[in-house]
Specification:
Belongs to the peroxiredoxin family. Prx5 subfamily. With about 180 residues, the chain is of the alpha/beta class. The two termini are about 15 Å apart. It is globular and about 40 Å long. The protein has helices spanning about 40-45, 60-70, 75-80, 90-100, 120, 130-135, 170-175; strands at about 25-30, 35-40, 45-55, 85-90, 110-115, 125, 140, 145-150, 150-160.
């Protein structure tokens, strides 16, 4: 069940974004040369799943996370989901190449680059530790999945600590749609 992995507001300062928060307004990049995508405009009036991943072409992201959302498109559409946005701290060229590798053309999945980690910072979902720096070169985005309806976060799961990666996969977030 995803419910036990959902982030609830804490007393005082929260660790990161929470259910009921408005999604932050940031500009992300689509493709290369990059076209700016404003999150507030992109999420307005839609039911969207936003997923964050630590790195393009990484094993869990490429072999499980993204393929799961591609495989569940019919079920997602049946639940009223309009789009799945896959975001990572990378540049538009890397995300575009990864999208081709994952065969997202014609799907409901869109890859967006958070080139400077602006979205990761705004959500307080920056992944930065010595292991990440050694393997991926610098601060990245935590693995998460959230359901956003008309710019308001309806459900959120963030992998790490006691929350498994699978809590952010398509099958788990489908339960909250």
């Amino acid at each position: 069940m995803l419910a036990k992995h959902l982030r609830q507001p804490l007393l005082g300062r929260r660790a990161f974004a929470a259910i009921g928060d408005r999604f932050p307004t940031v500009d992300l990049h689509l493709g290369f040369p990059p076209a700016k995508v404003n999150t507030t405009e992109r999420l307005a009036g839609k039911k969207t799943i936003v997923i964050g991943i630590p790195g393009a072409f990484t094993p869990v992201c490429s072999n499980q996370h993204v393929p799961g959302f591609l495989a569940q498109q019919s079920a997602l559409k049946a639940k009223g989901v309009d789009e799945v946005l896959v975001c990572s701290v990378n540049d538009g060229a890397v995300m575009e190449a990864w999208g081709k590798d994952q065969k997202i053309d014609g799907s409901m999945v869109t890859f967006l680059a958070d080139t400077e980690g602006t979205m990761a910072k705004a959500l307080d979902l920056v992944l930065d530790n010595p292991t990440i720096r050694e393997k991926l070169g610098g601060p990245r985005m935590k693995r998460f999945a959230m359901l956003v309806q008309d710019n308001v976060i309806q459900a959120l799961a963030v992998a790490g600590d006691e929350v498994p990666d699978t809590a952010t996969f398509a099958e788990a977030i489908l339960e909250k749609c």
